[in-house]
Structures are given as C-alpha cells and as structure tokens.
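Backbone geometry tokens:
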Amino acid sequence: MADVVTFGEPMVLLAGDRDKIYDSNHFTKYIAGSELNVSVGLARLGHDVIYATKLGEDPFGRYIYDFIKKEGINPSYIKFDSSNLTGLMFKSKKENGDPEIFYFRKHSAASFMDQKDLEFVKLLNPKFIHLTGITLGLSTNTRNAFNFLLKIAKGKNVPVIFDPNLRPQLWKDKDEMAKIINDAAFSSDIFLPGLKEAEILTGLLDPKMIGHFYIEKGVKIVIIKMGEKGAFVISKDESYDVPAFHVKVVDTVGAGDGFDVGIISGLLDGISLREAIVRANAIGAMQVMTPGDNDGLPNRAKLEEFLRGAR
C-alpha cells in the first residue's frame, strides 16, 4: 500500500552563478518541482510514495525520468508526451531572501495531465494525499485533476495535506489565485502555508488570526512556516510555536518542500505532531544549506546526525 500519493510538474533547473539570471555566465543543472521534491524526500526516508506526472519525449524528460528511478520512486505512473516539452526553470544565486526565478513551462507536457492520468488512485488506499497550489495554477487540465484527486481522497477518507506554494506567475491575477487556493485549503485536513503566502491569501498579518480563519472553515490543522522563526501550529484545541534550527543559508528554494517532508514522514512514523514539526524544521534547515531544490533532503542516518548535533 502506498504511503503517499501526489502529482505535479517536474522541471530541469538551471541555477546561475550571479544574483541576476541575465548576469550569470555559468549554470548548474538540477531537478526542480515541489511535489517531486516531497516525493524524493519521503523516498529517502524509506516511505513508499507514488508520484504521477507527464514528461516531454526530450533529453530533459529522460534526465528527470532516470533521476526518479534512481531515487527509488515507482516510475509506473510517469507518462511521456511526444507533442509537448518538459518544463524548464532558471534561478539566480542568492544567499539572503528568495532568488530570481524564470520559467519556460507554458504548454509543458505536465500541464496536459488530467483526471484520466489519476484514475489509478481509485484502486489504492494511501495513508495521505499531498497536493500543492502549483497544479491548480498550471492549467485547466491539472486543476481538474487536482479536484478529481481531492474527491477521491474525500470518498476514501484519506487525509489531504495541502501546501499552497503560491506561484503568481501562473495566475491571471492575485484575486483569482487567492479564491481558488483558499477553496482548496478549506477542503484540506492539514494546511501548510508560509507566513507571506497566508498574508496574501487572507489579508491578515497575525499568525493566530490566520490560523483561526482556516480552522473556522473546517481545516483540522494549520501549520504556518515562519522561516527563521520556525513554525506556528494551530488546531481547534491548541496552538504553539516550534523554533527553527539556525544554519548557514546557501539557497532558500526547496526549504518549504523539505518542511512538508518532515511533517508527512513524522505522521507516517507515528510520532507526535510537535515532534513532526521539529523534524520538518530540521529538514527545511538541511535543505537551505545546499544550492539545489532537493540536494539537502536527507536519508534517515543524515537526519538523525543533524538532530543529534542540534540538541
């Protein structure tokens, strides 16, 4: 039985050597994609994760496919598209704050995923379904697929873990983005926004008020990623802060995905929510110490080593 099911768009990432993409002379090749990062992180911790996507029948698509297999992720639900290309992403180098990002992903192979590509989930009984707001903004096809998977989850009583992962570049305007993302959040069981994302979605600034906003809409648990301040968690019964680990930051991209890995893997392992958030903060910290989107995602031994050293 699969522990987690997710789907999304993987991309080849070309990371520049300057703080502006256009100033960069040398680029290093990595692999990016929020849902893929989470899948990689869970697989490295020994969990059985199913990741569905479409790749272009091109060199980048083959590169990603080989990477997925090497990471121990089941490739059975990955399809190739001979008519559309694999997405491409450029990123600048930046140690403080978020780097500059530019996409070539419009009409990518993954944007043509639809509910037919997720019919197989009807035959499964995963422990969690992980979704992000990226697939809601990618195309009408992927939005329909998202809602189809959400419907399956509700029918099977499978908890949905939702990360908004706001990408304003994918949306017509912020109002549309906020409405559609919030509608999805209200249908999730565990909601994992960053603080800035939550401010955009709600117009609120206080983490407690943000948390109550979503709890009142039916979300069971809201965990707000607070960056260097750690995380704030709120449910119907309690709320508390969990401090961050302080490390040297190389690149902030992928930290949120690492955080999601920690939450999901902790819940799969049966540890308390507070312990899972400590793990999430740890994996997020390990990820920001590396330049790629998933280079810092640890296996069990590296995670335990980091936690021992931080105690």
In short: The longest helix spans residues 140-156. The two ends are 35 Å apart (CA to CA). The chain has one domain: 4-310. The CA atoms of residues 133 and 164 lie 4 Å apart.
